[in-house]
Design a protein that fits this description.
mainly alpha; 19 helices; 0% strand; 69% helix; single chain
């Protein structure tokens, strides 16, 4: 039923009958929907809400609110009892986050206020990324609560930053966006492909590879036997994610051989057969079958490939690229 049709139907009823309809409809609204759309507050403060919706907020005020929100969250004030953030506000944190995300994105990125908005969006992004792995709010599902996937949020910030031009400092900021905690509900490959999709020129792609390599070298320098297993594991995992990203950028540049060299140089894996298997999977994913065969044959005398790869090799040599192993 369209809104106009609804209005016509409601004209048939008396005031008390409309009240009954509202009550019955309210009963049928799931609790999660009531919370997401703040239905209770809408009913209680209809006039106030309408006035707030028509009132635009200044960047100075928004900056203060977002900064304070992030400071409180980092101080764990949204997950433990305290006198600063009351219980109701702690449970309704997502309403603030949603409002901040919407209002910050209303500022054009290439304006003075827009630059501040992008900075605050980035700070909020890191907070939600951390909160998806370490309890910061009432739920680990921080991006789900916001209603925006982490990869979607990443794309939004990157586009806001890159619209300012192909500068190395901007690219460093962009690479930092994938050097963070990943939402467990999203694949790291979604993040990588989203990142690459924003690199719409050859210059940006080459610049990204340069910055990624610098970041990998910095992370490798921090790996030490004196550090804890978890510390080194996190470093190695991110090094591998960044290496995969660089490989895929090279492939996008039609420089597959350089991508393979980069992968061999930086990807960290104890077992050579596993490392080769991962590389071949990427070449297969990108449908680079000639390079797949070349890479396989180059190591036939060094590696005892698993049976599934041997079967694939035999089929690919025949030109049967639709072959797959169940």
């Amino acid at each position: 039923m369209l809104v106009n049709e609804l209005k016509q139907e409601l004209k048939k009823y008396k005031s008390e009958e409309k009240d009954k309809i509202i009550v019955e409809l309210y009963k049928k609204i799931p609790k999660s929907i009531k919370e997401d759309y703040d239905i209770d507050n809408f009913i209680i403060n209809l006039n106030n809400i309408n006035s707030k919706e028509n009132k635009s907020i200044s960047m100075d005020e928004l900056n203060k609110q977002v900064t304070y929100f992030i400071e409180c969250a980092n101080s764990r004030l949204y997950v433990q009892p305290n006198r600063i953030i009351n219980k109701k506000e702690r449970s309704n944190w997502r309403f603030k986050a949603k409002r901040f995300y919407k209002e910050l994105n209303s500022f054009l990125p290439n304006t003075k206020d827009g630059l501040i908005a992008t900075y605050l969006l980035t700070k909020l992004y890191y907070l939600l990324s951390y909160g998806s792995n370490y309890l910061t709010f009432s739920s680990f599902n921080t991006f789900g609560a916001l209603g925006v996937r982490q990869s979607e949020y990443l794309e939004n910030i990157m586009k806001r930053k890159l619209i300012l031009g192909a500068k190395e400092e901007i690219m460093k900021d962009c690479v930092n966006l994938i050097d963070t905690y990943y939402d467990p509900d999203i694949s790291h490959m979604d993040m990588i492909y989203t990142f690459i999709s924003c690199l719409n020129t050859i210059d940006l792609k080459n610049m990204a590879i340069k910055v990624i390599e610098e970041k990998i070298l910095d992370k490798k320098s921090k790996i030490s036997d004196k550090k804890s297993f978890n510390y080194n594991y996190e470093l190695e995992t991110m090094i591998n994610y960044l290496t995969e990203c660089a490989l895929l950028i090279y492939i996008a540049l039609y420089e597959v051989d350089n991508g393979i060299k980069f992968f061999h140089k930086y990807y960290i894996e104890k077992y050579i057969e596993v490392k080769e298997y991962i590389l071949l999977e990427f070449l297969e994913l990108e449908e680079k079958y000639d390079y797949w065969i070349k890479e396989y044959e180059k190591n036939m005398d060094k590696i005892n490939y698993r049976d599934s790869l041997k079967e694939k090799y035999n089929e690919y040599k025949k030109g049967n690229y639709e072959y797959s192993v169940n």
